[in-house]
Every structure is written in structure tokens, then in C-alpha cells.
Amino acid sequence: MPELCFSLFESEVAMKSDSLVSSNHMKAGLVTLQPGEAVGEHVTENREEVLIVLSGTPTLIKENKIIVLKEHETHYIAEGVLHNVRNNTNKELQYVYVVSLEK
To answer: Which residue range forms the structural domain that includes residue 32?
Structure first.
């Protein structure tokens, strides 16, 4: 994902996600990706992120490594890490992201 700021990440995902939590220290949302869709490369500057797979099989591209996650798995993404989530399957993908807010 070129380096994108979190606000661009939010706007890209806005059509595909529903905000679950918004607090002074973290934000969470539900993302639904149809077959062939992707969130888009981005960097969550000064923020940590956790992905929680609800259904489907996401392909996480993280700093040029391809990681295929399974249903009900979680994955931690450190701050400042370039990443993308893709649905390379023929089934709908749903996951929850939890992001720490800037310090």
C-alpha cells in the first residue's frame, strides 16, 4: 500500500466498513470485502492495529510478505507498517480492525 495517512485509509474503507468503537484511545470497525476487493495499501502512522477475522480468508500483504489468515485468527500490525488486506477468494470476507489512536 504508497504511504497513505490514516485519514485516507478511513475514507477508502468508509464505504465498506461500519464503525464499532470510537474512544479517546482506540477505534474499531467492521470491514466487508467482496471477492476481488482490497482495502488498499496504507500505513497507520503512529498507530498499532489488530485484525480479527470473522469470516472468509483474507490475504494480508505486510511489508512485501504475503500472509493468508484464517477465519477466527487475529493479527497484529505495528505502527508505521505498510500493509493491505485483499479478498482473493470467491466468498465474502468480514473482519474487525482495532486501531490505537495517535499518542
So the answer is: 6-100
**Total structural domains in the chain?**
1
Residue of 91, 82, 61, 58 lying closest to 72 (CA atoms) = 58
50 CB neighbour count, 10 Å cutoff: 15
Per-residue pLDDT of 26-67, as tens digits, reads: 888 999 999 999 999 999 888 999 999 999 999 999 999 999
Q: What is the DSSP string of 11-42?
A: HHHTTTEEEEEE-SSEEEEEEEE-TT-B---E
Does residue 1 form part of some domain? no
Closest to 84 measured CA to CA, from 15, 9, 29, 30: 9
Instruction: Give the whole-angstrom CA distance, residue 50 versus residue 100.
Output: 9
The CATH number given to whatever domain includes residue 34 is 2.60.120.10
pTM for this prediction: 0.77
